[in-house]
Amino acid sequence: MHIKEAIRSRRAVKNFDPAHKISAAEQAELFGLAQQSPSSFNIQHWRFVNVTDTATRQAIQDAAWGQAQVTEASLLLVLCADIAAWSKQPERYFASAPQPVRDALVPMIKPFYEGREQVQRDEAMRSVGLVAQTLMLAAKGMGYDTCPMIGFDAGKVGEIIKLPADHAIGMLIVVGKATKPAHPKGGYLPLSTIVVENHF
Ligand SMILES: Cc1cc2nc3c(=O)[nH]c(=O)nc-3n(C[C@H](O)[C@H](O)[C@H](O)COP(=O)(O)O)c2cc1C
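Above are the sequence and the flavin mononucleotide SMILES. Below is the predicted complex in structure-token form.
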């Protein structure tokens, strides 16, 4: 599928075939494509909690206003961010880079984030947003549909997945085979509203 077609046809789907299974190989391909996303200093804050346990899925659905797609889709992913990833062995983010690149970039990470809690969290959420969209487009390209979700009690879901204190939940994403098309599109703002030339 061409990237333009994937972008235009990706929709937030709510109805999925509960019998469809996504193989381990396809899951690995999906996560491998998603992780090609950009992140500041290549920190890769994203962590995907792949909820495979039926009772855990049900508990998350209960914390998500009973949304059907939480249990009906083939995959339920809790997209989390490690807010403190910048401080955890940052040399691993350039493990494959040429030595001069590693030597230049790794020492820049700590001074940029240390003591700047808002920046640390903003950065983590930027990374989750980028990986989420890459994951959804990759799924579309693989013949699957998705739904991103923030309609849930983040505190409760955090407890269910035992979210570490220095992590945050960005959103849920489900992936699977649609059984019904998404609702008609809500419509888009005019480009003249969203594109600002030079300054506001
Ligand atoms: C961060 C985020 C949270 C969302 N939360 C929900 C949700 O909880 N439940 C739901 O059915 N759709 C949810 N949506 C889907 C949006 O309603 C949908 O993306 C939007 O209406 C545009 O439609 P489209 O994605 O089909 O183009 C969410 C989307 C995003 C990006």
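The longest strand covers residues 167-176.
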